[in-house]
Amino acid sequence: VDIVRELAGTGGADTDAGGDGDFLDAAVAAGVARLWPEPGNTTIGFADPSFREVVASRMGPRRRTELHSRAAAAFRGRGDSVAALHHEALAADGPDAAVAQKLSRHALSSAMAGRWRDAAAPYRLAADLSGNPGQRRHHELMSIEALISASDIPEARMHLRTMPAESGTNTNSGTGVGADATAARAPETATGDGPEVDDVRMDAIVGYLALHEGRRAEAIARIGSAADHALAHEGMNPEARVRVSTKRTLLAMVDWRPGEVVEWADRARRWSEPLMGAFAEASAMAVIGEAAETGIRPVDAPIRGEQPLHEQRRLMAHGWAALVHDDPVRARGLLSA
User: Fold this and answer.
1) Which residue has the higher pLDDT, 52 or 275?
2) I need a surface site. Which of 63, 152, 154, 307 has the fewest CB within 10 A?
3) Phi and psi angles of residue 35, each rounded to the nearest 5 degrees, phi first
4) What CA–CA distance (Å, rounded) separates 162 from 23?
């Protein structure tokens, strides 16, 4: 609320006559705005998304850029770099490679910490601000992967279906997703990692979505193809290689092949840096594979670089191991944590 008043306090059509912020009370009373009261951080927003669209459509580009730039500066002054970056992106009235790169770095940092929902929106904004078609496609793929990992399957499916077809041959999987995704493969333009690597990403992501939607054959074909490429190409982008290996580990778990769970989890850990989120994710999945393979309950210990979400997965894995080793009391404690 204080930032809205600050932005409106320079005069003009956005300021109430008295300059005391009564226009916010009037907006809430009229049902145009809604207040989210919280001690020390009360926020205000439009009561309906359509209201935002109407206001934005009637605002000139210069005014829009000015307000978002000032909002970015205000949030930066308060130490909120995430909100500042968001408004910096909204202030752009065309492609901006520098801001897109900052958004991508922030999204990657969130993804590595397991905050997938926080990663999806910055990746989408980075795609919107990328002037290079390949970079835009790369960021779109990363955004879709983040949505799937956040279990927002309908949104992920929608974005995957609307990705522009650049080249390739359609092969209908029966859902509509496979056809559109295949059409978007093999672009002639360069991407962030190169066309070949983004083709592998596409296979892994389509397979990942198929796994969530119960299309086992498509998941095996897509993720298997991506994993074969990652295994055969040691010089592949390390981050992409690790992401593919964790999906292959998950596929082995869903298909209940404990030996392959351990094998691919070990690869994911070898190919990743200790502080990468993928290292912690692979370690948690390896617990289940090792318990099933050896018949011995693994020792529970914190994983290097784990974030709260990764800790939750580790506890779930050890809870499962305790349950199958007939220790329901410990299992309940771990699974309830």
Assistant:
1) 52
2) 154
3) -105, 135
4) 40
Rounded-to-integer distance, Cα 72 and Cα 7, Å: 11
This prediction has a pTM of 0.76
Q: Is 14 helix (H, G, I), strand (E, B) or coil?
A: coil
CA nearest 45: which of 57, 58, 31, 61? Answer: 31
* Six token digits for residue 28: 């809430």
> How many other CB atoms are there within 10 angstroms of residue 295's CB atom?
9
What angle is formed at CA 155 by the lines to CA 150 and CA 156, rounded to 5 degrees? 70
Return d(Cα 45, Cα 241) in angstroms, integer: 41
Give 217 or 6, the one with higher predicted confidence. 217
Reference 112, options 98, 123, 101, 99; nearest CA is 123
pLDDT in tens, 13-43: 444 445 555 788 888 899 988 988 888 778 8
Residues 110 and 167: beta-carbon distance below 8 Å: no
The C-alpha atoms of residue 129 and residue 98 are separated, in whole angstroms, by: 9
Q: How many CA atoms lie within 13 A of 260 on its CB side?
A: 15
- 3-class state of residue 121 by DSSP: helix
Q: How far is it, in rounded angstroms, from Cα 163 to Cα 169? A: 15
List pLDDT tens digits, range 261-283: 999 999 999 998 765 778 888 88
Enumerate the H helices of the chain as residue ranges.
2-8, 22-29, 49-57, 61-77, 81-91, 97-112, 116-129, 133-149, 153-161, 177-183, 195-212, 216-232, 238-254, 258-271, 277-294, 308-324, 328-336
State the DSSP code for 186.
S
Q: Which residue has the tokens 């990992």?
A: 149
Helices (H), 30-80: 49-57, 61-77
